[in-house]
Structure to design on (137 residues):
């Protein structure tokens, strides 16, 4: 059997434009439903479906189907998915700091779903700076 580099393995599990966002979204809300998530994240149906299938295949997300009419499906994190959240938090914090250093625009929605104290403690000055740049309606 061919050996696998652990970094390549984890990258394969969480790579894809939306996978880390989906994992955090499920963590933040406890569970997600497909159509709500598609609207919230502004991701195409095809991409969201594929990313959820891959996350499910890799054991990070569980798909729960309720036999109701209309059919109801929810996605939750598995214990393996929950285990990844601290690592994703570290990557998020590192990314926001680096983007701020480079003066790159940061999606304000990223701050909305990362409003927990653990993020504020690390990123308050950056969050405040970027929130001031957002035009208020």
């Amino acid at each position: 059997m061919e050996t696998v580099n652990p970094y390549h393995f984890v990258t394969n599990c969480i790579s894809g434009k939306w996978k880390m966002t989906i994992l955090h979204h499920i963590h933040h809300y406890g569970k997600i439903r497909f159509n709500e998530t598609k609207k919230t994240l502004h991701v195409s149906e095809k991409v969201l479906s594929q990313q959820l299938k891959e996350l499910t295949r890799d054991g990070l997300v569980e798909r729960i189907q309720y036999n109701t009419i209309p059919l109801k499906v929810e996605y939750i994190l598995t214990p393996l998915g929950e285990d990844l959240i601290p690592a994703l938090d570290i990557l998020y914090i590192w990314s926001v700091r680096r983007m701020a250093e480079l003066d790159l625009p940061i999606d304000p929605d990223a701050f909305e779903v990362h409003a927990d104290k653990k993020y504020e403690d690390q990123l308050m000055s950056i969050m405040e700076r970027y929130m001031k740049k957002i035009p208020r309606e």
Summary: The longest helix spans residues 79-101. The longest strand covers residues 61-66. The helical segments are 6-14, 19-29, 34-41, 45-57, 79-101, 109-112, 117-133. The beta strands are 32-33, 61-66, 72-77.
